[in-house]
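I would like you to sit down with the pair of lines that follows and say whether tokens and residues agree.
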Amino acid sequence: MAALPVYRWHLAPDGYATRRQLRARNLRPGGQQVAAQLERPRRRRPPLVAYLYRVDLAKPVRPMTPARWAALAKANAARRTCPSCRRDAGYVIPPSLGTCSPCAYPDPHGSEGTA
């Protein structure tokens, strides 16, 4: 088994890209194996590693179908729906709270004193 070529951070040759760089070009790895890796040295810790793929073997990103758009809209709506009061909060409910802000922090005095 051949070892992967290792390049230092910012010194990769042309023709290689990370997943994010491929996505910025509307490409995907398309089933190819990792072609090389970047290493960014750090003090007293192991280096950061980024995997590189060949750009010439990358394939175009698959377009979103109407069914995928519908599934994405349904998933985002579920993230905005409060499990306690079942209302759309209008924002993504943080997992740390688990409920919308009014349910997580109920007003002990009611809404009588607001102007």
